[in-house]
Amino acid sequence: MNKEQLKKKVGQRIVELRSQKGWSQSDLARACDKDRQALEKLENGKVNPTIYSLLEIAKALEVPLKKLVDF
Asked: CB of 61 within 8 A of CB of 17?
């Protein structure tokens, strides 16, 4: 898997988990103190998130970090 594919997979996983909670992008952005546009770029695989950003998102979604990156 190359870098671009990995970014897209992580973004897709975040969308799946966010949707399971019934949250909008804005809801998740508020929960992890990010702006919605940054979250949108992450979900679309346009940015390479830091491990800390992924940890904040995982905490907000109440899932282990591993769930965001375990394919």
From this structure: yes
